[in-house]
Amino acid sequence: MLASDSIGKEFVVTCFGESHGRCVGVVVDGCPAGLPLSERDIQEEVDKRIPPKPEIVSARREKDIVEVLSGIFNGFTTGAPICTLVWNKEVIPGEYDQIKDVPRPGHADYPARIKYGGFNDYRGGGRFSGRITVAFVMTGAIAKKLLGLFGVEILAYAVEIGKVKVEKKLTIEEIRMNTYKSAVRCPDLERAKAMEEEILKAKSEGDSVGGVVECVALKVPVGVGEPIFDSLDADIAKMLFDVRAVKGVEFGAGFKAAQLRGSENNDAYAIRGGKIVTLTNNAGGVLGGMSSGMPIVVRAAIKPTPSISKEQKSVDLSKMEETLIRVRGRHDPCIVPKAVPVIESAVALVLADHTIRAGVIPKVLREKK
Asked: pLDDT by residue (tens digit) across 217-274?
Protein backbone atom coordinates (compact mmCIF):
# COMPACT_ATOMS: atom_id res chain seq x y z
CA MET A 1 0.00 0.00 0.00
CA LEU A 2 1.39 3.41 -1.00
CA ALA A 3 2.11 5.64 2.00
CA SER A 4 0.08 8.83 2.36
CA ASP A 5 3.24 10.91 1.90
CA SER A 6 3.66 9.47 -1.61
CA ILE A 7 1.80 9.92 -4.89
CA GLY A 8 2.13 8.34 -8.34
CA LYS A 9 2.29 4.81 -9.76
CA GLU A 10 5.33 4.96 -12.07
CA PHE A 11 6.77 8.40 -11.29
CA VAL A 12 6.49 8.03 -7.51
CA VAL A 13 6.96 11.12 -5.37
CA THR A 14 7.60 10.98 -1.61
CA CYS A 15 8.18 14.24 0.26
CA PHE A 16 9.54 14.81 3.76
CA GLY A 17 10.32 17.61 6.20
CA GLU A 18 8.54 20.26 8.28
CA SER A 19 8.26 24.04 8.22
CA HIS A 20 10.74 24.62 11.06
CA GLY A 21 12.54 21.27 10.95
CA ARG A 22 16.02 20.77 9.51
CA CYS A 23 15.03 20.51 5.87
CA VAL A 24 12.34 19.92 3.26
CA GLY A 25 13.02 17.33 0.60
CA VAL A 26 11.67 14.81 -1.85
CA VAL A 27 12.49 11.39 -3.27
CA VAL A 28 11.42 10.76 -6.87
CA ASP A 29 11.44 7.09 -7.81
CA GLY A 30 10.75 6.01 -11.40
CA CYS A 31 12.22 8.89 -13.35
CA PRO A 32 13.57 7.36 -16.57
CA ALA A 33 17.32 6.98 -16.99
CA GLY A 34 19.09 9.27 -19.44
CA LEU A 35 17.34 12.56 -18.67
CA PRO A 36 19.81 15.49 -18.79
CA LEU A 37 19.42 17.04 -15.34
CA SER A 38 21.43 19.18 -12.94
CA GLU A 39 21.04 20.96 -9.61
CA ARG A 40 20.84 24.19 -11.61
CA ASP A 41 17.75 22.94 -13.49
CA ILE A 42 15.99 22.36 -10.18
CA GLN A 43 17.33 25.55 -8.60
CA GLU A 44 15.90 27.70 -11.41
CA GLU A 45 12.41 26.41 -10.67
CA VAL A 46 12.76 26.74 -6.90
CA ASP A 47 13.89 30.35 -7.32
CA LYS A 48 10.54 31.15 -8.94
CA ARG A 49 8.76 30.62 -5.61
CA ILE A 50 9.79 33.99 -4.16
CA PRO A 51 8.50 37.13 -5.91
CA PRO A 52 11.00 40.01 -6.20
CA LYS A 53 8.92 42.50 -4.16
CA PRO A 54 9.45 41.81 -0.43
CA GLU A 55 6.45 43.94 0.59
CA ILE A 56 3.97 41.43 -0.88
CA VAL A 57 5.49 38.26 0.61
CA SER A 58 6.53 36.88 3.98
CA ALA A 59 9.63 38.30 5.66
CA ARG A 60 10.86 34.71 5.92
CA ARG A 61 13.10 34.52 2.87
CA GLU A 62 14.87 31.18 2.73
CA LYS A 63 17.73 31.00 0.24
CA ASP A 64 16.63 27.46 -0.62
CA ILE A 65 19.90 26.21 -2.08
CA VAL A 66 19.05 22.91 -3.74
CA GLU A 67 21.16 19.84 -2.98
CA VAL A 68 20.84 16.64 -5.00
CA LEU A 69 21.87 13.63 -2.92
CA SER A 70 21.28 10.79 -5.37
CA GLY A 71 19.96 9.70 -8.76
CA ILE A 72 22.05 11.96 -11.02
CA PHE A 73 25.48 11.00 -12.37
CA ASN A 74 27.57 12.73 -15.02
CA GLY A 75 24.71 15.10 -15.81
CA PHE A 76 22.04 12.44 -16.41
CA THR A 77 19.46 10.61 -14.33
CA THR A 78 20.54 7.06 -13.57
CA GLY A 79 17.14 5.44 -13.12
CA ALA A 80 17.74 5.26 -9.36
CA PRO A 81 15.66 7.31 -6.89
CA ILE A 82 16.44 11.03 -7.05
CA CYS A 83 16.71 12.63 -3.62
CA THR A 84 16.86 16.41 -3.42
CA LEU A 85 16.40 18.84 -0.54
CA VAL A 86 16.75 22.39 0.78
CA TRP A 87 17.78 23.28 4.32
CA ASN A 88 15.62 25.42 6.61
CA LYS A 89 17.78 28.29 7.81
CA GLU A 90 15.43 31.20 8.59
CA VAL A 91 13.56 29.52 11.44
CA ILE A 92 12.37 31.10 14.67
CA PRO A 93 10.64 28.14 16.35
CA GLY A 94 10.10 29.98 19.65
CA GLU A 95 7.50 32.17 17.95
CA TYR A 96 5.01 29.33 18.23
CA ASP A 97 5.54 28.26 21.85
CA GLN A 98 3.08 30.85 23.18
CA ILE A 99 0.26 29.64 20.94
CA LYS A 100 0.92 25.89 20.85
CA ASP A 101 -2.28 25.29 22.84
CA VAL A 102 -4.32 27.86 20.92
CA PRO A 103 -5.16 26.63 17.39
CA ARG A 104 -4.91 29.31 14.73
CA PRO A 105 -8.18 29.78 12.78
CA GLY A 106 -7.87 28.52 9.22
CA HIS A 107 -4.87 26.30 10.00
CA ALA A 108 -4.63 22.53 10.58
CA ASP A 109 -3.40 22.99 14.18
CA TYR A 110 -6.45 21.51 15.91
CA PRO A 111 -7.15 18.43 13.73
CA ALA A 112 -3.39 17.66 13.60
CA ARG A 113 -3.15 17.80 17.40
CA ILE A 114 -6.08 15.42 17.79
CA LYS A 115 -4.99 13.03 15.02
CA TYR A 116 -1.41 12.68 16.29
CA GLY A 117 -2.13 12.86 20.01
CA GLY A 118 -0.24 16.12 20.47
CA PHE A 119 3.04 14.73 19.12
CA ASN A 120 2.81 16.73 15.87
CA ASP A 121 5.36 19.46 15.14
CA TYR A 122 3.28 22.60 15.67
CA ARG A 123 6.00 25.10 14.70
CA GLY A 124 4.73 27.04 11.70
CA GLY A 125 2.22 24.28 11.01
CA GLY A 126 4.96 21.67 10.76
CA ARG A 127 4.06 19.14 8.08
CA PHE A 128 0.96 21.14 7.12
CA SER A 129 2.80 24.33 6.25
CA GLY A 130 2.94 25.83 2.76
CA ARG A 131 6.70 25.53 3.20
CA ILE A 132 6.34 21.84 2.25
CA THR A 133 5.41 22.82 -1.31
CA VAL A 134 9.07 23.52 -2.07
CA ALA A 135 9.27 19.73 -2.42
CA PHE A 136 6.53 19.88 -5.07
CA VAL A 137 8.50 22.50 -7.01
CA MET A 138 11.71 20.45 -6.91
CA THR A 139 9.74 17.50 -8.28
CA GLY A 140 8.07 19.73 -10.85
CA ALA A 141 11.47 20.80 -12.17
CA ILE A 142 12.29 17.16 -12.92
CA ALA A 143 8.84 16.43 -14.36
CA LYS A 144 8.85 19.51 -16.61
CA LYS A 145 12.32 18.69 -17.94
CA LEU A 146 11.14 15.15 -18.72
CA LEU A 147 7.87 16.23 -20.35
CA GLY A 148 9.65 18.93 -22.34
CA LEU A 149 11.64 16.27 -24.21
CA PHE A 150 8.31 15.06 -25.61
CA GLY A 151 6.95 18.50 -26.47
CA VAL A 152 4.68 18.97 -23.45
CA GLU A 153 4.71 22.48 -21.96
CA ILE A 154 3.04 23.54 -18.71
CA LEU A 155 2.31 27.17 -17.81
CA ALA A 156 0.64 28.48 -14.65
CA TYR A 157 -0.24 32.08 -13.85
CA ALA A 158 -2.46 34.19 -11.60
CA VAL A 159 -5.81 35.27 -13.06
CA GLU A 160 -7.45 36.59 -9.91
CA ILE A 161 -6.31 38.11 -6.62
CA GLY A 162 -8.93 39.33 -4.20
CA LYS A 163 -11.54 41.20 -6.25
CA VAL A 164 -9.16 41.92 -9.14
CA LYS A 165 -9.60 39.63 -12.16
CA VAL A 166 -8.02 39.25 -15.58
CA GLU A 167 -10.85 40.04 -17.95
CA LYS A 168 -9.18 39.66 -21.35
CA LYS A 169 -8.29 36.46 -23.21
CA LEU A 170 -4.63 35.74 -22.58
CA THR A 171 -2.47 34.40 -25.41
CA ILE A 172 0.10 31.68 -24.85
CA GLU A 173 2.82 34.09 -25.94
CA GLU A 174 1.69 36.66 -23.34
CA ILE A 175 1.73 33.98 -20.67
CA ARG A 176 5.23 32.83 -21.61
CA MET A 177 6.67 36.34 -21.79
CA ASN A 178 4.93 38.18 -18.97
CA THR A 179 4.12 35.84 -16.09
CA TYR A 180 7.44 36.24 -14.29
CA LYS A 181 7.80 39.89 -15.21
CA SER A 182 5.08 40.45 -12.62
CA ALA A 183 5.63 40.11 -8.87
CA VAL A 184 2.15 38.59 -8.58
CA ARG A 185 2.79 36.21 -11.51
CA CYS A 186 0.03 37.65 -13.69
CA PRO A 187 0.61 37.92 -17.48
CA ASP A 188 -1.79 40.85 -17.79
CA LEU A 189 0.68 43.48 -16.57
CA GLU A 190 -1.96 46.19 -16.14
CA ARG A 191 -4.16 44.01 -13.95
CA ALA A 192 -1.02 42.85 -12.13
CA LYS A 193 -0.53 46.38 -10.80
CA ALA A 194 -4.07 46.40 -9.42
CA MET A 195 -3.45 42.98 -7.87
CA GLU A 196 -0.39 44.30 -6.04
CA GLU A 197 -2.47 47.18 -4.68
CA GLU A 198 -5.13 44.70 -3.53
CA ILE A 199 -2.50 42.74 -1.58
CA LEU A 200 -0.94 45.81 0.01
CA LYS A 201 -4.34 47.15 1.05
CA ALA A 202 -5.19 43.91 2.85
CA LYS A 203 -1.73 43.85 4.46
CA SER A 204 -2.15 47.41 5.76
CA GLU A 205 -5.37 46.30 7.47
CA GLY A 206 -3.74 43.27 9.09
CA ASP A 207 -5.59 40.97 6.72
CA SER A 208 -4.98 38.80 3.65
CA VAL A 209 -6.48 37.90 0.26
CA GLY A 210 -6.74 34.80 -1.91
CA GLY A 211 -7.15 34.30 -5.63
CA VAL A 212 -7.19 31.92 -8.58
CA VAL A 213 -4.29 30.29 -10.43
CA GLU A 214 -4.89 28.94 -13.93
CA CYS A 215 -2.66 26.28 -15.49
CA VAL A 216 -2.43 25.20 -19.12
CA ALA A 217 -0.70 22.04 -20.35
CA LEU A 218 0.05 22.06 -24.08
CA LYS A 219 0.63 19.17 -26.50
CA VAL A 220 -0.36 16.39 -24.11
CA PRO A 221 -0.89 13.31 -26.34
CA VAL A 222 -4.44 11.97 -26.78
CA GLY A 223 -5.54 9.16 -24.48
CA VAL A 224 -3.34 9.81 -21.43
CA GLY A 225 -5.21 8.81 -18.26
CA GLU A 226 -6.31 5.57 -16.59
CA PRO A 227 -10.11 5.48 -16.04
CA ILE A 228 -12.05 4.81 -13.96
CA PHE A 229 -10.37 5.58 -10.66
CA ASP A 230 -7.04 6.88 -11.99
CA SER A 231 -8.58 9.37 -14.39
CA LEU A 232 -6.26 12.15 -15.49
CA ASP A 233 -8.43 14.98 -14.21
CA ALA A 234 -9.13 13.13 -10.96
CA ASP A 235 -5.42 12.68 -10.26
CA ILE A 236 -4.63 16.29 -11.16
CA ALA A 237 -7.41 17.46 -8.84
CA LYS A 238 -6.15 15.19 -6.05
CA MET A 239 -2.64 16.59 -6.38
CA LEU A 240 -3.87 20.17 -6.47
CA PHE A 241 -5.87 19.64 -3.30
CA ASP A 242 -2.65 18.41 -1.69
CA VAL A 243 -1.51 22.02 -1.99
CA ARG A 244 -3.05 23.01 1.34
CA ALA A 245 -4.16 26.48 0.25
CA VAL A 246 -6.32 25.10 -2.58
CA LYS A 247 -10.05 25.03 -1.83
CA GLY A 248 -11.51 24.51 -5.30
CA VAL A 249 -10.53 22.98 -8.66
CA GLU A 250 -12.24 23.19 -12.05
CA PHE A 251 -11.40 22.17 -15.62
CA GLY A 252 -12.37 24.05 -18.78
CA ALA A 253 -15.73 25.74 -18.35
CA GLY A 254 -15.86 24.27 -14.85
CA PHE A 255 -18.85 25.31 -12.76
CA LYS A 256 -20.08 27.54 -15.57
CA ALA A 257 -20.90 24.37 -17.50
CA ALA A 258 -23.84 23.90 -15.16
CA GLN A 259 -25.43 27.01 -16.71
CA LEU A 260 -24.94 25.89 -20.33
CA ARG A 261 -27.04 23.71 -22.59
CA GLY A 262 -25.48 20.64 -24.15
CA SER A 263 -25.36 22.38 -27.51
CA GLU A 264 -23.31 25.15 -25.92
CA ASN A 265 -21.07 23.01 -23.73
CA ASN A 266 -20.17 20.28 -26.25
CA ASP A 267 -16.86 20.80 -28.03
CA ALA A 268 -17.48 20.16 -31.74
CA TYR A 269 -14.78 18.29 -33.68
CA ALA A 270 -13.00 19.55 -36.77
CA ILE A 271 -9.87 18.87 -38.84
CA ARG A 272 -7.18 21.56 -38.89
CA GLY A 273 -3.83 20.96 -40.58
CA GLY A 274 -4.54 17.26 -40.82
CA LYS A 275 -5.20 16.96 -37.08
CA ILE A 276 -8.38 16.32 -35.14
CA VAL A 277 -9.20 19.29 -32.92
CA THR A 278 -12.22 20.73 -31.15
CA LEU A 279 -13.54 24.18 -31.99
CA THR A 280 -14.00 25.04 -28.31
CA ASN A 281 -12.44 23.64 -25.17
CA ASN A 282 -15.16 23.62 -22.52
CA ALA A 283 -13.95 20.17 -21.44
CA GLY A 284 -10.56 21.63 -20.53
CA GLY A 285 -8.67 19.03 -22.52
CA VAL A 286 -10.02 16.00 -20.64
CA LEU A 287 -12.88 13.66 -21.68
CA GLY A 288 -13.79 10.51 -19.79
CA GLY A 289 -10.72 10.91 -17.63
CA MET A 290 -8.38 10.91 -20.66
CA SER A 291 -6.55 13.71 -22.45
CA SER A 292 -8.39 14.83 -25.60
CA GLY A 293 -5.40 16.35 -27.38
CA MET A 294 -6.59 19.89 -26.65
CA PRO A 295 -4.82 22.05 -24.06
CA ILE A 296 -5.53 20.91 -20.52
CA VAL A 297 -6.90 23.95 -18.70
CA VAL A 298 -7.34 23.77 -14.92
CA ARG A 299 -7.95 26.45 -12.32
CA ALA A 300 -7.27 26.30 -8.58
CA ALA A 301 -8.94 28.58 -6.03
CA ILE A 302 -6.42 29.69 -3.40
CA LYS A 303 -7.74 30.70 0.02
CA PRO A 304 -6.57 33.85 1.84
CA THR A 305 -3.53 33.31 4.07
CA PRO A 306 -4.98 32.16 7.42
CA SER A 307 -2.18 33.77 9.46
CA ILE A 308 -3.29 37.38 9.91
CA SER A 309 -2.48 39.97 12.57
CA LYS A 310 -6.13 40.81 13.21
CA GLU A 311 -7.48 39.53 16.52
CA GLN A 312 -9.53 36.34 16.10
CA LYS A 313 -11.53 34.03 18.34
CA SER A 314 -10.07 30.66 19.32
CA VAL A 315 -9.82 28.32 22.32
CA ASP A 316 -7.08 27.48 24.81
CA LEU A 317 -6.94 23.68 24.69
CA SER A 318 -4.87 23.43 27.88
CA LYS A 319 -7.54 25.28 29.86
CA MET A 320 -10.55 24.36 27.72
CA GLU A 321 -11.75 27.93 27.59
CA GLU A 322 -12.43 30.45 24.86
CA THR A 323 -9.76 33.04 24.17
CA LEU A 324 -8.50 35.50 21.58
CA ILE A 325 -5.46 35.11 19.33
CA ARG A 326 -3.40 37.53 17.31
CA VAL A 327 -1.02 35.61 15.05
CA ARG A 328 2.45 37.13 15.05
CA GLY A 329 5.45 36.23 12.93
CA ARG A 330 6.31 36.35 9.22
CA HIS A 331 3.44 35.58 6.89
CA ASP A 332 2.36 36.24 3.31
CA PRO A 333 -0.52 38.69 2.86
CA CYS A 334 -1.35 36.64 -0.26
CA ILE A 335 -0.23 33.11 -1.12
CA VAL A 336 -1.14 33.31 -4.81
CA PRO A 337 2.24 34.56 -6.19
CA LYS A 338 4.08 31.70 -4.46
CA ALA A 339 1.37 29.24 -5.45
CA VAL A 340 1.85 29.77 -9.21
CA PRO A 341 5.03 27.62 -9.58
CA VAL A 342 3.57 25.13 -7.09
CA ILE A 343 0.40 24.61 -9.15
CA GLU A 344 2.51 24.31 -12.30
CA SER A 345 4.68 21.67 -10.63
CA ALA A 346 1.71 19.76 -9.24
CA VAL A 347 0.20 19.40 -12.71
CA ALA A 348 3.60 18.48 -14.17
CA LEU A 349 4.31 15.63 -11.78
CA VAL A 350 0.89 14.05 -12.43
CA LEU A 351 1.39 14.34 -16.20
CA ALA A 352 4.85 12.80 -15.89
CA ASP A 353 3.41 9.81 -14.04
CA HIS A 354 0.55 9.34 -16.49
CA THR A 355 2.63 9.72 -19.66
CA ILE A 356 5.02 7.04 -18.38
CA ARG A 357 2.06 4.82 -17.53
CA ALA A 358 0.63 5.38 -21.03
CA GLY A 359 3.91 4.29 -22.63
CA VAL A 360 4.50 7.73 -24.14
CA ILE A 361 7.74 8.08 -22.16
CA PRO A 362 10.05 5.03 -22.01
CA LYS A 363 11.98 3.89 -18.93
CA VAL A 364 15.30 4.61 -20.66
CA LEU A 365 15.45 7.76 -22.77
CA ARG A 366 18.62 7.03 -24.71
CA GLU A 367 21.36 4.44 -24.94
CA LYS A 368 24.71 5.60 -23.59
CA LYS A 369 27.31 5.68 -26.36
From this structure: 999 999 999 999 999 999 999 999 999 999 999 999 999 999 999 999 999 999 999 9
Using one digit for the tens of pLDDT, what is the confidence trace for 83-114?
Answer: 999 999 877 766 777 778 999 999 999 999 99
**Cα–Cα distance measured from residue 227 to residue 321, given in angstroms and rounded to the nearest whole number:** 49
The arrangement of secondary structure in 11-357, i.e. its CATH architecture, is 4-Layer Sandwich (3.60)
* Residues recorded for the chain: 369
Q: Which residues pair with 23 in a beta bridge?
A: 87
Closest listed residue to residue 30, CA positions, set 47, 13, 50, 5? 13
Three-state SS at 358: coil
What is the residue type of 161?
I
Beta strand pairing call for 312-316 and 67-70? unpaired
Q: Which DSSP helix (H) or strand (E) runs through 343?
A: helix 336-357
Answer whether 208's CB lies under 8 Å from 162's CB: no
In 75-133 the beta strands, taken as DSSP E runs, fall at 76-77, 82-87
DSSP 191-227: HHHHHHHHHHHHHHTT--B-EEEEEEEESPPTT-SBT
